[in-house]
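Good morning C.,

I know you're traveling, so I'll keep this short. The sequence:
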Amino acid sequence: MDGGARHTPRMTTTQDADAAATWAGVRDRLHARGLRWTPQRRTLVEVLARTDGHVTGADLVERCRALDPTTTPSTVYRTLDVLEELGIVRHHHGSDGREEFHVLPDAEHGHLHCRQCGGSWEITGAEISPMLDALRSERGFHVDISHVSLSGRCADCAEQRPG
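The tokens, ready to paste straight into the viewer:
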């Protein structure tokens, strides 16, 4: 594992085209929900379209304010809620408890956080399927993997200081 690096998958040409189509349709999808296409929402969508991987809400507010100083946090967070319902972003909680957003997630995933080096990695449902299957069969509990966040030590940190 690479210390503090975050895993950010590279998009293929097809994914780039899909992403462009998604961003182009956001205005219509917001209108379909009875929401106006305001300058602040347009700014947020512009910022998100240039964001790859994970980002905090506070970072998004800052980036939006750099383009439009009138941006209000409440508009950003309300719009993020709608965009999550549309599948454009997913939220989860980082190792420090802060809410983070994953832009255009291609698959549901959870996260591993190394509490020693601060590294963070995505984990797929397939990687933790035995645990998910056990919870489903033994407790009847269906896990939303996007909210799975496991803390521990990565292989490199565990090697440096066992125990």
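Safe travels,
E.
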